[in-house]
Amino acid sequence: MASNIFEKVLENVDIVDVVRRYVDLEPKGKNLFGVCPFHDDHSPSMSVSKEKGIFYCFTCHEGGNAIKFIEKYKKLSSIEAATFLAQEYHIDISEFDRVSTQTSTINKYYNAMDTASKFYSFLMNDENLSKEAREYLKGRGIDDNTINEFKIGLSIEDSQALSKTLMSKGYLKSDLIITSLANENEDLFIDRIMVPIRNESGRVVAFGGRIYKESSKDQSKYMNSKESPIFKKGETIFNLDKAIDALKTTNYLIINEGYMDVITSYSRGVKNAVAIMGTNITDEQVNLLKKYTKNVAICLDGDKAGMDGVKNLIRGFEKANMNYSVTILPNDADPDEFIRKNGIELYKEYITTRRLDKMGYIYEVTKKDYGAITSFNLESFKNDIFRQMRDETSNTTIETNLRKLSLDLKISYEAIKEDFKQYRLRLNPNYKENKEVKAESNKFSVKNAFSKAQEIVINYSINDKSYFSYIEGRMGGRLFLRDKELRKIFITIGDLYDYYGILTASEVNMKLREKGIDFDYNETYSYSTEDLDKILITFKRESLKEEIAFIKATLQNNLLSKDERDNYLLDLQSKQRELKKLWIRNKKNY
Asked: Which residues lie across from 27 on neighbouring strands?
């Protein structure tokens, strides 16, 4: 007997039937395969096993049971996904009344927010009521398509309009108070443009209201819903539900401060922006972002609060070991303002080509704080930059910022470099430059032909992105290397290409060192696709030999069932045939 709602649902659903409702599946061996809906897939890479009750994508590595599939596909919580399947397959879950009751109450709150959103949209679609609001939005570059895309609505001057509507549909006054739609006396939002705030599943959990009339200038410009059982500000990220789909092609998220920044950029084609709705980011928000990507581009408002907020975001992303960059827009502009004034193409250029790392950001902020550099503050500014870099271990970062300092102060690089060396010596008499003392790092030695082949694969991957993509395609992903440390390097190189695009070999090496990875890249090697093919054949051959040896050893186990033994024998024969083909192909190449 099932002990919880999850077990009850899984006992009564067929994962093949569940997945087949959303993905076309074709039989291949014991399993079925289909195009994975969780990444930009162009060939069937997702396997579904009826026997094991699981799905797994061999490219993006998403996998799990039927509940997990629905959770990912429909962007629901696990309990919501289980309840959804129970309803779809008419599974009686009444024995779990407490869970059902809690779910029912939460769903009531979700439904109240959804009804409120539809009501606000209805008012926005009334030409007479919304004329002034639409003119305001049009002035900010927000057209009808964007209004409909984000379901931007309108609350009117009638302070009871929403309450009357919801209570006529059976909601209690207490429901409206709990969900922050109203207080004891009136609706919470009155005469404002309404922006629904959705969770990662796309359910409305809160609202942001903005004034739009000149007569409302004495009120707070923005007002957000208070927290409720379905809305925790520190656990919610605006537009994440839409941006998740964009990650299939961009692989990184742009982090903005406010929802108007996101709406403005989204309406002009930048679909991968989200807003943390403030300048502070919580661990919960960081973990929510990391659930979907390790790569983020920070672009907050250009005022002091925004600049201070960047430091908070950097701490959060470093703690979570995420890749980040920072973009500072000129003239203290926020993204919304910058895009409307300069256009989306220049904004995209800033995001993609004018990105700063942590030290680069600190340098620019420090320089901005000083304003004009004169003979009176030159030494102070220089020492502030030195102080920020005193614990820096990357020679590349140090040189980059010392050269910036040289240009800004109009002093030779050699003089600045010597000053910094003396500064460090004063702080630590035992200090030596990195070229004399190497920090502990990951070094790798060649032990056999297989190890050598793996190292050469890494060299090719560093040399050019096209080689990396070729290797990834030929080897069927990024997890094929047997050596754990080399596999980590290969995956990291892939993450760097995903995030930065085209990089030179020296740039890849530099960014690897910044992550504490010191690999002996061979610059003098003669790189060619023909030689790479030979290396990959060598690697595949050695890999197949290992797999064949493993299968032969497994077949010595007398506890194997007949079916298991037959499957292993078929696998062994298949791999032996593949190995023979590789020998023949390799022989022809020489």
From this structure: 32
